[in-house]
Structure formats: structure tokens, C-alpha cells
What does this fold into?
Amino acid sequence: MGAWSARHRKTAVFGWLLFVVLASLLGGLHGSTRVDEAEAMPGQVSRAAEILDRAGLKSPATETVLVQSTDLTADAPGFRTVVDQVLAGVNGTGRAADVRSPYDTGAVSADRRSALVQLTVKGDHEEATANVGAVVDAVAAVQKQHPGLTVVELGDASSGKWMDEQFADDFARAEWTAVPLALGILLVAFGALVAAVLPVLLALTAFVAAGGLVALSSGILHTSNSASSVMLLVGLAVGVDYCLFYLRREREERAAGRDLDTSLRIAAATSGRAVLVSGVTVVIAMAGMFLTGIAEFKAMAYATILVVVTAVLGSLTVLPALLSMLGDRVDKGRVPLLRRLRRPDAATGGRFWNAVLTPVLRRPLAAAALSGAVLIGLAAPLLTMHTANLTFQQQLPKGNELVAVSQKIEAAFPGSPAPASVVIKALDIDSPAMTAAIADLRARALASGRMHGPVDVTVHPEQNVATVDIPLNGSGNDAVSNAALRTLREDLVPATVLAVPGTEAPVTGRTAGSYDFNAKMTGSMPLVFAFVVAFAFLLMLTSFRSPAVAGTAVVLNLLSVGAAYGVLTLVFQHGVGASLLGTEGVGAVESWVPLFLFVILFGLSMDYHVFVVSRIKEGRDRGLPTRAAIAHGIRSTAGVVTSAAVIMVAVFAVFGTLSMQAMKQMGIGLAVAVLIDATIIRAVLLPSVMTLLDERNWYLPRWLAWLPDFSHTESVPPLGTGAPLATAAATAEPHAPQARHRRIGV
It folds into this structure.
């Protein structure tokens, strides 16, 4: 691919640009089909959404207006006047439906100083999000007239509108922060503006093209906002890294005195191979997310696979073509103080890495034991990990206005912001038996001690559907709420409404969503883990023809993932250092984050592993003893691995600064894992373990001799010579015993 691209430079470059433009244009014209509620969640929550969808009801966007006073009770004339003004103002917008007074529903607090006006916003989710602004303005107008009272609104539409806008702002901020960061780091790594700009441009074009492809195919596999964020996160990281590997190797070969064509061939045969194997590993890892059966995971997996494949394609085609066009002009725009590439110790890893590597190679057993103990210690907190679908109160930073409103409502009406909803589908919803069963359900719920009022019953006679909203005790996703949910699902609903023949009654709501999601994750994670580990092992075994190398890769990656889990649990669940990130009080890890981190990290960790081990094997194929090859491979890749890791950590850390807690957890988890992987794993544990294994690293049992050999015999000068590769190839007989040549792995 590299040779073809170098020979057909214009075709490769303009073909890539045409591909990017067409993919983006067609994707924009097609638009994106988003994951809906019925497919977004598993279990009873999905079934409840399906019943409402088929009935044409959709899940209503419920809103609550809190009227609260420190002096007046709900029975006072002044308090009633404020409630009446809220009712009139909300009804006057024409955007609200089913507006109910607290004096009719009984939604008055125990101390009689708080009351809830309940309503729904017209339209489906998107329409309600657009319509709720007028309702919010009407409530704000009442608050302005009565500054002595609290008149605030909270609900599905208002919080959804805020979160949609915040998500868009965060996404834009991540784009504008991550790209300059990556560019600055590359400028330090290469010391030249052109060389620094190339990887960023290719990564961005790969992201744009993949985004168009995702939109174009979203009619078949629906996408989501989370998928777009993940695609940017991973696409920028791997796109820049892949180009960095390729470009850095080509520059090193040019610095060694080889001509441009030869340097490109060596880069293609070495770094290009590492990019291809790494990309395939990421794709395999992400494919494991399809086994969860959850639409959101499928969307994230598909988007990530497309952006990684596109980044690999660009790195192996358009990058060699651009390098062939530019030649040594890729070093244009040099910054004298940042010319790191051609420094005298670039090939040996520099003083820092030499200082780390020398004792590791001298005492490999002690180094392996110490680094392994550190990683196991970091991973230990994962044994206490608690996952949950974070409520928006947990998702948003402390001091947020919506969080403050939610806390006020929660204090006056525990559990009411997120009630469980029993969706009843009956043969005859108005039958005496069903009417009695619903009344019995309401009475038993209030008598259970695990649920409380107000219980809201809404009947839709034409569709034979009813919804019963029952507030649960607890915070919404804690043990108390989960116990109440199980009581409702397993005891109360079967004993009441399900006793009527021909009835379905799935229980939905925020607590139910979190509970079902966690149950689905618990069931699918072993399958996903087994799939990813098995296929990663097979890929490494096929690539390096060594069970030891493949097994080492899997074990080291599992250690880095475990350490990342431990740090994530320590920070976001137990609060160690959480104040620095604005995560106080979260108390849980977002349900989808652990599985997502596993598949992403298992794929991304292979970037460094394949790149480093390929260089080690290359040295051994050239005739170096295993220990010398390990030292050569680690030292010669130290600079590029450091640069790549700094870029990844910086990009991921940007997501750790965003407002949404799920994005924080994802970004911090990825950043910590990559940092651990590029330091403890690659600089200490990998060389020490490979040194202990010595020649066993390359042992291939006879029964595996059928594995394909992807090595490429290329006549090259021995290590340490500066003779151009093409010259050596022209003067050596490939099969002559006296010819001084070695094999270079592809």
C-alpha cells in the first residue's frame, strides 16, 4: 500500500480528499437516525417504551413546578395565589398539557410549606425539548413577581434541554481544545510545523469522513450523541498516533542517510505493519460491544470501528503519498529549540529512558515483581466498584441550578423527581376487575413502606393502556430504591394488575432503567471480555508467531485495564482526589463506562505493544540476541511512544474537564490507563518479562507451524550501518551465504 501510494501520489491524495468530501456531504444530506427509548434500554424498560410507542403515546415529558415558602403554608391565601398564577401562566403558553394543581393531586409536603404543580409538555422528546422553553419562561415570570417564595421548575424536558445544550457545548469545547493540544505536542515531538500538522490534518479528515459514513448508515444501525463524542475521542487519538508512528520512522530512516523511497519502504514494512495490526485489534475489541445487545453500545462500537478503519486507511495510503510529495520539506517550519527528531540520543531513547531501562534489564525479576505489585495495588479498589446509571443530579457539577432545584424537591418530596412507572396494557383497561386491580396496586404501594405518594394514575381508554407513577424511597439508584423496585416488580404488580388475565405491566423509570442496564451489563460482560481477549490473543499469535508474545500482550493489557478500573473507583466512587475534578458526591461509576473502557483500552494498548514488540523482533531478525534486541527496541521507540502517549493522555484528559460526569469518567479512565501503559507497562514490565522469557519469546510449537508467516524478506544493512537500504539490496545475493543481510519483519 505504501509503495503504490508513493508511485501514485496524486491519485492517493486527491482520492482521499474526494472520499472525505463525498462521505461528509452524503452523510449530511442523509441525516442521522438516533437511538430511541425503546431500543436504548434493555429489560422491562424497553418493553414499557414499546407499549407506549405502539399506542402512540410515547413517554410523556413530565415537568414539576415547586412552589415553596419559609413563612406561608400551602393553605395561606398568598401561597394559593402563587399556585394559581403558575397554573394560569403554564396553561397560557399553549405548550403544556394535563396541568394539575397540588390541591387536586395532594402533592403538598408534610410540613405544608411546599407544593408541586405537575404537567406534561406537548410533543415527543425533541418537540418537548423545543416547547419547554416557553413553560420555563412562564414559571420564571411568576418567580420574578414573588421573590419571597421559591418558584422553580424541573422535569424531563427542561433537564433534557439543558443537557442537550451542555452536551453540544462540551463537544465543541473538546474539539477546540484537543486539536491545538495535539498540534502543540507534535510540534515539540518533531520540531517542525509541517511534520506536526500532517497527523492532525489526517486525523481530522478521518473523523469527518467517518462521521459522514456513520450518518449515511444510521438508518440501518442507529447512532447517538455519545457515539459522536467517542468517535472524536478515539479518532483523534488513534489517527494522530498512527501517523506519528509512520512519520517518525520515515524521518529516522532519512536521518540515518537512506534515500526517500527506501525510507518510505522501511516505514511501510515496519510502522505501517504496526498500524495495521493495532487498527485490526481496536476493531476486534470494539466489535465485542455488539455482544451486549444494547443499542447505545452498538452505536458507539460502530462509530469507533468506522473512524479507526478510516484512520488506518489514511495512514497507510495518503500519508506515504504526502511524504513522497514533500520529501525533506516535511521538516519545513523548524523551531530551533524543538528539533527533537535529530538529536544525538534519539535512537537510544535519551537519558531518562536509559536511566529507567538499565536497572530493569539488569534485574528483570525484581523489576517485574515491583511493577506488578504496583499495578495490582492500583487495581485493588475495583473489587468495591459500584456501577449505576447516574441520575442527572449526579451527572451535573455541584452548584448547578438544576441540581439545586432537584435537591429542594427531593428534600420536600423524597423520591418524587424520579418515580417508577407501571405501564399497564390490558384487554379492557376500564373493566371493573382492572379498575379494582389498579386501586389495589395504589393502596399496597403506599402501605409497603418502600413507596409513597402522590401516586398518579393516567388511563388511556382508547388504547387500553394506563400508567401508574409511584415514587420510590431512596435517591433513585441506591440500594433502598432498588429494593423498592424489586418489591414493586416481584410482589405488588404480580399480585394486583397481572392477576387480571391478558395483562402486561412492565415497570419503567429512572431507577428501573439503571437496574435493568446493570443487570444486562453483568450478564454480557463475561462474554465480551472472553471475545476480546480470545481474538486479541489470536491476532497477536498470528502476527508474531509466538504464544509467549501473544500471552504477554494479553496479560499486560489486562493489568493496565485493571489499574485504570481501580483508579476510576478510587476517584469517582470513593472520592479520593475527586474535588480536583468536580466529582464530589457521585458515589458510583457510570454503568457503561467499565465495559467501554475495557474494549477501548484493550485496543489502544496494542498500539504501543505492537509498535514496541515489532521493533524488538526486527532487531532479533537482524541478528541481535534477545536481550540486546529488547534494549534496542525499547530505546529506539521510547521517543515516539512518549509522544504518542502524551497526545493520547492530553486528548483524553480534555474529556475529563467536561461538565458531564460520564464524560469525565471516560476521559480520566482512558488518560490514566494510557499513562500507566506507556510508563509502567512499556518501560518496566514489558522489558523485564521479555528478558526473563529470553529465547522463549520466539518459541513456536510444531503444532502451530501452519500459522501464516507475514514476515517480509528484505535485504537491509546490519544494524548500526548507515548504508542506504537500496544500495545493500543491489549488491547482495539474497541466498549467498556470504551476503550480509537480515530479515525485517512486516
About this structure: The chain has 26 helices and ten strands. The longest strand covers residues 61-68.
